[in-house]
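Bug #77: duplicate submission created two jobs. Keeping one. Sequence:
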Amino acid sequence: MKKEIKILLVGDAYSVHLLKFVGNLKKLNPNLKIDIFNISKSNKNEPEKIAIFNRVIQPRKYFPNWIYKISFLLPFFSRFLDLGLSFASSFCHSKYDIINIHFVSVESFFLMPQYKRKAKTIMSSPWGSDIYRNKGLYKFMVKKIMDWSDWISAPKIQFREDIKKIFQVAESKFVDLGFGADMIDVIRQNEWLSRDEAKAKIGLIDNYLITCGYNGLKPQRHAKIINALAEVRESLPENLHLLLPMTYGASKNYIEEIRNLLKKHHFDYTIYDQYLPDDKLLYIRKASDMFIHAQPTDAFSASMQEYLLCETIVVNGHWTRYPDLEKFGIPYYLYHSFDELPACILKAYRQEENIHISNELKEFIRKKGWQHLAKEWSKVYEEFAR
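Kept job's structure:
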């Protein structure tokens, strides 16, 4: 019988990405016992969603509520005292093979001495914005977490090179692990599905479909995309219909703001603001004639890769280029600023450039599904636990 491997994750217990990560790992390797120390500031209490973890530790609040409201510094220090005291009391009798920090945030700067006492191996797993959207004291703290970690997980893509450059991390400290995407596996299993069949599934068989972004967060810059499309509306098909997946990250006010903008420009559109099952996500990916990406940073580009695997025309901001994808030939149309975006959309629609999604690129993307990557994570965890 294989040895039980005890893992403590530090991160957001309700993160869709972490829940999929753990679900795929435990499906593959039942010997993994995975707990999580939930450092999210969210007040969610949905135990059925997080039942996949063996144990979920929610930090306690040790101070009266007014302490957390009165000024900037006092709530800041009280939060970190709460985290430290909660960690110490919850794990006083616990030992782990690995503590894996998912999303490198300042909380772990204060908790690292306790991590060291509780596990023989500490691994940090950056997600993207924790690397690119930081400066000053925050950057210093993230660098120290990297320094104190035994290992850092990042695939052999530009993201790893950026970590090395920004935080002066040695190549020898990296483990070749990246996040997978369930949808890549779903697309791979349904490559027979045609674009027209997918359009019929979502009731838009007679439309030219352009998808704008892939979630409801403001950094998707929906308004800039919509305004660019409005500038060239007369040169695009009359049957144009815009798709806006906004199933997470968006407030009701922000969705209403985007809806009003779409109405102002008289676009036909569908906003998806409720949870979408895998089959509906598959149909959206497969049905889209064009996908426009405008996010300022995006380390792993999973959604873009899903559209490329579906042979969708992709329009991408020059500031988020992916050398690991481009080594098979540049697979997307590039714009350098939002002033250039309208013209770039027309080029893409008219297919004026020799943009090619090669079979080699598609095979590369297929290996980014969780069915493949979960095996890699499990193997590394087993090696660390020896």
